[in-house]
Amino acid sequence: MKLTLFMLILLLPHLCLAQVPPSIQQQLEARAEAEGEEIQIDGHLLQQLEYFKKHRININATSAEELQQLRILTDIQILSLLQYEKLTGKLIDVYELQAVPAFDLASIHKLLPFIEIGEAVSLKQNLEARLQGEHTILLRLSRVVQKAKGYRETSGEHYLGDPDHLLFQYRFQYKDLLYFGLTADKDAGEQFFKGAQRNGFDFYSMHVFLRRLGWIKALALGDFTVSLGQGLIQWQAYAMGKSSSTMDIKRTSPVLLPYRSSGENNFNRGLGITIGRNFFEATGFVSAKKISGHLSDDSIESFTTMNSSGLFRTPSEIKWKNNISLFSFGGSARYEKKSLRLSMNFVGHQFGMTLDKSDQPYNYYSFYGKRFINGSVDYSYSFKNFHLFGETASDKHCAFASINGVIISIDRDLDLSFLSRHIPPAFSALAGQAFTENSTPSNENGFYAGLSFRPGPTTDVIANDDFIRFPWLKFRMNAPVHGRDYLVQFAYHPTKQIEVYVRYHFKEKPLNAVTILPIATPESNNTKDLRIQFTDQLNRSISVKGRVEVLWFNSGTTQAQQGFLLFSETSFKIFVKINCDLRLQYFESDGYESRLFAYEADVLYSSTVASFFDEGLRYYINTTYKCNKNFSIFLRWSGTMNQNKNHTGSGLDEIDGTKKEEIKVQLLFHF
Amino acid sequence: MKCLMIYLLFSFVEPQPLHAQNWSVPVYLGIPVYSVRQADAFSFAENQASLASLHHFMAGIYAERFFFLPEMDHYRAAVALITSSGNFGFNGTWSGNSDFAEASCGIAYARTLGKIDVGVQFNYYRVAVASYGHAASVNVEGGFILHFTPRFNGGMHLFNAAGTSLAHEEQLPVIASAGFGYDLSPLFYIGTSFEKQEGLPVSVRVGFHYAFHKKVFLRFGISSSGSLFFFGLGYLLGDFRIDATASFHPQLGTTPGLLFIYNHPEE
User: Fold this and answer.
1) CA A532, CA A485: separation in Å to the nearest integer?
2) Does residue A122 sit in helix, strand or coil?
3) Of A8, A57, A316, A357, which has the most beta carbons under 10 Å away?
4) For residue A552, what are the CA distances in angstroms to A139, A224, B195, B202?
């Protein structure tokens, strides 16, 4: 078994035909590193990318919102393209994209798989065509092969359900104009049609979404997301943080989007509508749903934390399920003419109980109470090769926060970006998600600078630097501190099929020292990370990818740790209808602080950024069998082996033995 | 075509941690791994895929004495056979003395698949300790090399991925490495590699090959493992090649080495 596995890497030098573009993979890894934990991606972004690969965007009849969803072009590029079409008329050929200002060859190359040149259609043709969209039914089953402790126990705290994770989705989509669908999800360990889950699945979601119906720009019924401004007060769409995409510092998304993920949080349930005419547009939404939260020890009228995991497997987790009501409302009024956009936004959230905060010094400014109100003003303006944007927001206590940035296209081969943020510790926004080091916009001042330079047709240089200050205490920081985060990346791509990049990332983030003193003070902790990655598309059906990464934590000190990760991945096609991805990875780290993250391809519409610490081998095999144009089967077998340990995981997820394996099966019908 | 070259090779000996097993390939032997021009009979010890870039029969022996200590001799032999169905390699090593000795022998196979070469090797490893007996195991290693351009190559290698053990549950380490090489010209080559042996810090090596005369070349480099500096000179004498090498460890001193390779002339 082990030998067979080992031989597979050597005999299969094939390449990964990635579902997700490499730039987005890097962004997702950067987000996982910033949050310090694994993330599962299963939602709108992946589905949209896959949809637009099959149903390409007509570049002559598209909109800014549609192009934004690809996450490939910057705002300057999108604006430049739309202005170019207004001036010169429709594009005749994709090669004409080279004439569009702000478009470089690399961006065009990334865009080509998702676009086509076509004729614009009338509104009547448009409405008729909407009903001829694509139906999709997805059924996914996954299970960890080895039995965890939570399934072996029969009394006390244990998992009440079986180890299967089951996902069912039905979706209908026509371009980005009409969506409707249903999602049902049951996590591993949750019951199914019994006990606390008599309705079957643990989580149900439904959405109906229309766009561009005359003066109704967007209409959302059911589950949807709302994203306003630069994320200071409300942002629920896909959000990027610092990464090697140095120009992606501006939050861009349509205000309303359908919610198509199986995640059980971060969405609204109700009604949202955007109407507009000429240069004005207004959005309003209302939402009423239940959330899960841990009640305070001394009161049944208040709660302390919200359950964001969506897991209800044990009696104690089920006790808190959907026990708190949340009513949200808000809106936005926007004026947009040529390259100027001005918006006024507001959101409000009302809990059914009071949100308490724990009595810790770092929680002094944390939000608490039943009602949260935020308002903001945001803008964006393009002047020649400058694109300015920003947002200034306030909460109900009149604490003001502000983010402002500029993206400058100095030349076709040189772009600069700058972003300044000032967010006092007293500012709070329940659903904010801005370009910050913290996961929520609060208690942070910073200045970010980024550069993207293409010295030649085969080389790219990317660099960014972020100076951060936390003016108040934080968890594990008992004093205001400064931090720094910079990255330099050099990429070499001699041909379109080959890319090699070297990346150096430095991060300094003070944390409380480990001490016997009653109060620990923050001391400097730094992380240095060196990564080299290559990708080679050998031919139309075979490609190879590899990475070697070394991380040093607090090198030269007594707390020094080192992490190492190396993987080789191949993808290939067999008999036209079968695609396989294989990865073999070795990792070793001295401890949790030197853990490393790596993006992993998964079955269609799903992927993971996994974290690795300790020591072991990681492998996976993804196989796709396209039976015919309507039906596909996806299989995944993955595992992690550690010969030096006799168990993996902890708590109820503890598994005896040296390995943990998972099997996943997915059926996909299109019609 | 015969050519006379004087090789004065100063072997590079990478200072190994002074414990029982000596797993890393001597760093001098690993310099030309990711070069299609400079690869030789010993290159496949570092990455078996390098065997695929050889075009004629080669055989060689190599010897070094760690820090001038007779108890720490190391010997290595290698043979590369070229066939139309891929290339085969055989190598053997012996280290130590009568009180403590390690030996291994391996059979390698590699072939080119166009832009990529792959190789695998099966090893038999044995360690013998006086008065304690001996233990043995079989392990597997393998790797691949990608030819990004005719001059720029990169690859990866994994040793003992299966985590085999000796008797008494002593586990042999897993060693993972990745490297890149660039043939600037037929005369100059630069290569770098990262190696991670289980339980030890990452070792980074950079090596250079410079043929400043048609019969003489110089190789040198550094390794972060033990802050080692190494260099050597090689001389071509007909179909033979003679290398003399040396490496310098800041605390433990100098390690000399000698290498002989026979290149069967191309027909």
Assistant:
1) 19
2) coil
3) A57
4) 42, 42, 15, 10
Say how far apart CA B23 and CA B139 lie, in whole Å: 12
Q: Are strands A655-656 and B228-237 parallel, antiparallel or unpaired?
A: unpaired
Residue A202: is it exposed, middle or buried by C-beta count within 10 angstroms (0-12/13-18/19+)?
A: buried
What is the SS3 assignment for A125?
Answer: helix
Give the whole-angstrom CA distance, residue B18 versus residue B29.
20
Phi, psi of A392 (to 5 degrees): -125, 130
Query: Running DSSP on this structure, what letter comes out for residue A300?
Result: S
Per-residue CA distances from B119 to A562, A618, B84, B169 (Å): 30, 21, 15, 28
Of A600 and A16, the one with more pLDDT: A600
CA distance A225 to A441: 18
Q: Which residue has the tokens 């090689």?
A: B234
Q: Helix and strand tally (H, E) in chain A?
A: 9, 36
Under DSSP, the state recorded for A94 is: G
The residue behind tokens 């004026």 is A335
Quickly count: other Cβ atoms within 10 Å of residue B244's Cβ. 17
Instruction: Dump the DSSP string for A516-572.
Output: SSSS--EE--EEEEEEEEEEEEEETTEEEEEEEEEEEESTTSTT-EEEEEEEEEEEE
Burial of B15 (0-12, 13-18, 19+ CB in 10 A): buried
Q: Which of A532, A530, A479, A487 is nearest to A508 (CA)?
A: A487
Cα–Cα distance, B260 to B242 (Å, whole number): 5
> Would you call A28 helix, strand, or coil by DSSP?
helix
Q: What is the pTM of this model?
A: 0.86
Q: Do A598 and A568 meet the contact criterion of CB atoms below 8 Å apart?
A: no
Tell me: pLDDT of A129 over 80: no
**Mutant choice from B118, B121, B146, B175 vs A, greatest count of A C-beta within 10 A:** B146
Per the structure block, which two tokens stand in for B66? Answer: 């760690």
Rounded Cα distance between A361 and A375, Å, is: 27
Higher pLDDT, A297 or B173: B173
- Distance CA(A289)–CA(A331), nearest Å, equals 18
Report pLDDT digits (tens) over A411-438. 888 999 999 999 999 999 999 999 999 8
User: Which residues have C-beta within 8 Å of that of residue B70, sequence separation ≥ 6?
Assistant: B97
Instruction: Check residue A473 and report its DSSP letter.
Output: -
Classify burial at A516, counting beta carbons within 10 Å of its beta carbon; exposed 0-12, middle 13-18, buried 19 or more. exposed
Count A/B contacts: CB-CB distance under 8 Å.
94
The CA distances from residue A545 to A64, A337, A501, A538, in Å, are 33, 45, 12, 10
Asked if B192 contacts B204 with a C-beta cutoff of 8 angstroms, the reply is: yes
Burial, B105: exposed, middle or buried (Cβ in 10 Å; 0-12, 13-18, 19+)? middle
Q: Which helix (H) or strand (E) holds A65?
A: helix A64-68
Tell me how far apart the alpha carbons of residues A265 and A68 are, in angstroms, rounded to a whole number: 23
What is the rounded average pLDDT for all residues in chain B? 86
Partners of B128 in the β-ladder:
B101, B134
Phi/psi at A246 (5° precision): -70, -20
Report the alpha-carbon distance of residue A289 to residue A283 in Å, rounded: 20
Closest residue to A615, CB basis, from B158, B198, B201: B198
Distance from CA of B209 to the nearest CA of A (A): 23
Residue B55 DSSP symbol: -
pLDDT tens, residue by residue, A30-47: 777 777 777 766 567 777
Q: Do A586 and B158 touch (CB under 8 A)?
A: yes
Q: Are A663 and A145 in contact (CB under 8 A)?
A: yes
A4 band by pLDDT with thresholds 50, 70 and 90: very low
Residue A586 with chain B: CB contacts under 8 Å: 158, 161, 174, 176, 196
Contact A6 B161 (CB under 8 A): yes
H-helix or E-strand containing A488? strand A481-492
